[in-house]
Amino acid sequence: MTKPVTTDVPTDLPRDVPVPRDVPRDVPRGLPTDAPTELPSQQVPLNEIPASLREAGLVNWLREPLDEAVDQNRLLMMPPTVALMGTPAAELRETLSDVARGPRTRVMMGDNPALPKMPERPTLADFFRLRIFRKDVQHMLQSARVARANGMEEKVIMAALVHDIAVGGLIRADHGYWGAQLVRPYVDEEVAWAIEKHEALRFFADESVGYTYPENYKRLFGPDYRVPDYIQHEYDEARKHRWYMTSRLVTINDFYSFDPNVKVEFEEFEDIVGRNFHQPKEGLGFDGSPVAHMWRTMIWPNNFL
Fold first, then answer.
1. pLDDT tens-place string over residues 22-57
2. CA 214 to CA 194: how far, in whole Å?
3. Which domains does the chain possess?
4. What is the CA radius of gyration of the chain?
């Protein structure tokens, strides 16, 4: 989910100090390429926000409408439940619900004015351009470029192009499984399988193709990290599968695709996407597929229900 845009307003002001309306309003670096350059809504005065929300840094989950907005109610965004679990903010879920029942307040449903509006029939390119975080977009595009430069077949390139789509557009945990589920109705089953199994394969070296355990994982997870049993089982099963090397090649091209100085455009792969991704004519999210709701969640990530 795209994080609500923050401002330079301090959060430790006394409750009786109003916040000026002309504070700087910058778009974070992680927002999609076509995100607006200014917030289309305004910070609620801090003295009108419950102290518990201010202390937790959740002041930006409640927004004032623009002066010209037809609906002059404030909009409240509820953080996704899975993002609150195990955090101090979990106890604020009910506080946010109480705020939503207050005067002049509505919960977010439909288009969030802080996000670029999606087309009526969105394509994969639209999600890359308007929803998925820029860093993750560039990582996947770089992965696909490396795969193409290495002479990989189109199934591998297609898998590399969308292998981290869940990380940048939906959820990090078990992202290989989420990503495979997202694209499975639209790609060859070998592509979906490769995306799913890269979740496990990336933790295991394969010297026959020059893949070693990433040094970055030692820094992120610690030198003594051991994968859970289900990941070990997934690896063991994948290692025996006829498509093992397809997924392994995704991890190889994934490993070398984090150059911040390289910029790749989606258009570079329009031909491969056209041949390997079956775009529904109704648009992703509206074709009645078993995963349509997942694409709609990315279209309207801040919906209350």
1. 333 333 445 555 554 444 456 677 777 777 677 766
2. 19
3. 1-117 (no CATH), 124-299 (1.10.3210)
4. 21
